[in-house]
Predict the structure.
Amino acid sequence: MGDSNCLFCRIASRQVKADIVGEEEGLLAFKDSHPQAPTHLLVIPTEHFPTLADVTPAQTQLLGSAIQFANRLARQYQLSESGYRVVFNCGSGAGQSVFHLHLHLLGGRPMRWPPG
């Protein structure tokens, strides 16, 4: 069930346009509108969860599917050889700005550590 005030819920329901690059059962992937790397994709569940902290054990399979989806996208975008980063931000203090669970798939440039 979506949140009518949530940007990512509106993208998932196709009320807001996004550059969608893939879709699997319960998941959607699209290009980030403010990319931080040459490849910067977002993978979201189509069901609304505000943050990673709101996920319950019932969503364990969904999270695993999201990571596998990100891995397939990384291969599709030829990031496997050079490497890529998968990030979940949880809460505003961690940099989360849209409160709908999502992972970032970043690649195409060297990544530094620590990231923030």
